[in-house]
Amino acid sequence: xxxxxxxxxxxxxxxxxxxxxxxxxxxxxxxxxxxxxxxxxxxxxxxxxxxxxxxxxxxxxxxxxxxxxxxxxxxxxxxxxxxxxxxxxxxxxxxxxxxxxxxxxxx
Length: 107
Hints:
By secondary structure, the protein is mainly alpha-helical. The protein has helices at about 30-35, 40-45, 55-65, 65-90, 95-105; strands at about 10-15, 20. The protein has one domain (about 10-100): Orthogonal Bundle (Arc Repressor Mutant, subunit A), CATH 1.10.10. InterPro entries: DUF433, Homeodomain-like_sf, WH-like_DNA-bd_sf.
């Protein structure tokens, strides 16, 4: 039997500042947050049936190999979300007052 040359398979691509599973619309963020919440790769596949178990393990391996960079990326995303959320509250103050008023009165 002749030795074969194995290549490392890529599972993650970066497009327009977003990390995704290659060929899928699932973000790396989704998998990492599930993984950090304690979900097993098998349960992550159940949550994202478009993914294979191999792709989930590949995404987790990518995260672990690039943890400082991906953690910084996730932190930037959270900061952007909070900024946009605060802007939405300021721009739609009456809507939020009504939402919270309804929510508080029904509690």
